[in-house]
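User: New here, please read:
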Amino acid sequence: MKNKLFFIAFFLPFCLSSQWDKISVPTNQTLNAIASPSASSIIIVGDSGTILKSTNSGSSFNKISAPNVLHLKAVTFSSNNIGFAVGSAGTIIKSNNGGSSWSSVSSPRDVQLNAITFYDNSNGLIAGNNGCILKTTDGGAHWTNITSTTVYLLNKIHYLSNNSVLICGANGVLLHSSNGGSNWTSYNSGTTRYLSDVLRYQDSLLVLGDKGIALRANDDFSTITKDSLCIEQLISISCSNERCLSVGKSGRILASLDTRTWIPVALPYQQDYNDVQYLNDTVAIIVGTEGLVLKTTKGGFGNAVEEIQNMQITVYPNPSQGTFNIEWPSAFGEEAPKISISDNYGNALPFSLSAISKQHLIIYVNFEPGMYLLHFSSRSKVHTTKIIVY
C-alpha cells in the first residue's frame, strides 16, 4: 500500500503581507508576551514595565501603569479578572480587574522569572533562571520555592492534564511533574540546545528552540524524533483548532496545519518575534522588539499550506524490511533529488539506491528494526519523512 507521509516541508517563503496588519502601539519597548483574559481583551507585557491593554481584540492598545519599571517576561490570567505577570529580579505583579491596574506580589526569589501558568483558579506555577520553580495553591496570594532538578534557565511551562506538567529550558532541559508541580524529574531530550517553547497538539508534544530544533515526542518522552525547521531560534508556538504558527528571531515565522508540514511565511519586518497567540481560528497576535505588534484576522497564512500539501512525497511500502519506493510529483522539477537518511539523533546512515524513472527511486537499507528519517531535497524544497524498518 502506498502511504503519503510527511513531517516537515521547506519552501521559498510565501509573502503574505496582506494577511497581517501592523498595529500602532504607544511604546517602542521590546514586547515579550501575550494573554487574552476574554474574547475581546488582550494584555501584552514587555521591557521596562510595559503593559498594554486592548478591549477590541487587538485593533488598538492603551498603555497601563505598572508598579515598577522592571522587565516583564510572561503574563497569564486564571480568570477574566485575575491575572499575573512575572519578570526580572523576581518580579510578580497581579491584576484583579482584567489587566486595567496592577500591584506587586511578594516573591521568594530574586532571579528573572520567565514563565507563569495557572491550571485552575487556585494552583499556579512560575519558572525562571537558575532552575527556579515557584508554586501557589491559594490563587497567587503566596508563592513557595520548589526544589528543582536543574540549575539551568527555564523558559516555558505547559500543563498537560491530570496534574501532569512539562517545563523546557536551556541546555536541552525538560522537566516533568506528575503531581501539579510539587516534585520534578528530568527527561532526556537528546539535545543540549536552548529549548524555548513546548506545546501539546493532538497526539504528540512539540518542543521548539535554538537553530530551529523541533522535538516531537509522546507524553513520557520515551519516543523522540528530532529535526531542524530553520536556522534561527524559534521562540513561541501557538495553535488554533485548525492552524499553527511558530515565531522566532530575525522575523522568522513558520506556518502549519498539523505541526508536521511547515512552511516559512515572509513579512516585511525583521525584528525578533517573542510571542504568538491565536485568539480563535482566524485571529492571531504576534509581538516583538521595537514595540512590534502584528495582527491577522485571516488565519495568518491563507491557503499556502494546503497548496504545498498537494506536493507530497509518496513512500511505499512503509513499514518495510529494507526496500522503499519513493515517488514525487513533477512539480518538484526534473533535477535529480538528494536523498539522505538519519536516525532520530541526526546521525547519517548508509544506504543504496536505484533510479526507476525521473520521479521514482528505490532505496535499500540494512538497519535494525526501528524508525528512521528520510530526507528528500529537490530545488528549493526539502521534505523529511519517517520510514519504519521491521
